[in-house]
Specification:
The protein is of the alpha/beta class. It has 2 domains: 18-137, Translation factors (Elongation Factor Tu (Ef-tu), domain 3, Beta Barrel), CATH 2.40.30; 148-274, Nucleotide-binding domain of ferredoxin-NADP reductase (FNR) module (Rossmann fold, 3-Layer(aba) Sandwich). Helix content is 21%, strand content 32%. The chain has 7 helices and 12 strands. Helix 5 packs parallel to helix 6 (232-245). The longest helix has 14 residues, at 232-245. The chain is globular. The structure holds flavin-adenine dinucleotide. Flavin-adenine dinucleotide (FAD) is lined by residues 59, 90-93, 109-111, 113, 115-119, 156, 159, 258-265. Residues 15-143 form the FAD-binding FR-type domain. This is FAD-binding FR-type domain-containing protein.
């Protein structure tokens, strides 16, 4: 079994991935725990995938030993292929990546939600701890030709929203709507002269406050680029249909759930399979 707290970290991941070695942690806000990493074991020909990607939502799959009690269906949904170790993946945005000579470093901001594998791992992480990672992937970059932007999400999407805002030119205009428990979480977002930022605190059901706040945005579909991510039911069943009804092209747009209330990432993958939008 892979033990990510075993030190020292290996030079490469035991399942062919890279290795994130923790170099420090910082409690950014009551909601967010930042973990800084050195990224080791990336083959030379793949370094640019980390350092030169245009995608601002660049993410990695963090590998954990599979917890006890998963059904075969859950394991199959969240396990990367045939492997003698039972492992599962957790998906996290790379808030930023930097290169100094041959050293690649990065930062991931975790919602400290206290359940599951990754959230608690981040809270307990200490220098020298390591995790194997697969990736990176990414699906969104701000379009300089977009007439307007709509960025909406919850705390899990804050790192990606922050990265998108950092990458937008000063002339970019639009709305940013974020649902997080604490106003201080918003400190993760940079200032931007053309983006109007609104913070809402969650209601009883995660994503409801976000959906209500997004409905208050004046949406002009022509030339609008959207980035909407957060609790899956809110995003896919409330916000996406509303945008579609307004005439926004939702198919192929960057709109998806990042997690599902009451489900681990395994369960969420099954939810996604069963709730694929037909439009
Ligand atoms: C492309 C992508 C990028 C993402 N980037 C980030 C990121 O940068 N930072 C980040 O924190 N998350 C991010 N997420 C979401 C993250 O992958 C999930 O929240 C994941 O389920 C966390 O794993 P876990 O082991 O902590 O909890 P799990 O074992 O998956 O779930 C355990 C329990 O915790 C609940 N839970 C899971 N996530 C949350 C949450 N955010 N808030 C409240 N309850 C929760 C579940 O509903 C479940 O009941 C991203 C997801 C995607 C798809």
């Amino acid at each position: 079994m892979v033990d990510s707290n075993e030190k020292p970290a290996p030079a490469a991941g035991p399942h062919g991935g890279a290795v994130f070695v923790v170099t420090g942690t910082e409690r950014l806000s009551p909601t967010l725990q930042r973990v800084a990493f050195e990224i080791r074991g990336v083959p030379a020909e793949e370094v640019e995938e980390f350092t030169a990607s245009p995608d601002t939502d660049m993410y990695v799959k963090l590998i954990f030993p599979a917890p006890e009690g998963l059904t075969a269906e859950e394991l199959e949904a969240n396990s990367p292929g045939e492997d003698e170790d039972a492992i599962v993946m957790r998906t996290y945005t790379l808030h930023s990546v930097a290169v100094e000579g041959e050293r690649i470093t990065g930062v991931v901001d975790f919602v400290a939600h206290g359940e599951g594998l990754a959230g608690p791992w981040a809270l307990a992480a200490a220098e020298g701890d390591w995790l194997e990672v697969f990736g990176p992937g990414g699906n969104y970059a701000p379009d300089a030709g977009a007439a307007r932007h709509l960025l909406a999400g919850d705390a899990a999407a804050l790192p990606a929203i922050a990265a998108a805002m950092r990458a937008m030119p000063a002339e970019a205009v639009g709305d940013v709507v974020v649902e997080t428990p604490h106003p201080s979480d918003m400190g993760l977002l940079p200032e931007h002269p053309g983006l109007r930022v609104r913070h809402v605190t969650p209601w009883e059901t995660p994503g409801d406050a976000l959906a209500a706040a997004v409905r208050q945005v004046h949406v002009e579909p022509e030339g609008l680029q959207v980035f909407v991510h957060g609790e899956a039911h809110a995003v896919m069943k409330k916000i996406r249909p509303w945008l579609k009804d307004l005439g926004v092209t939702v198919r192929g747009a960057s709109i998806s759930g990042y997690w599902r209330q009451g489900r681990s990432e395994e369960g969420f993958r099954l939810w996604k399979r069963d709730n694929r939008p037909e439009d």
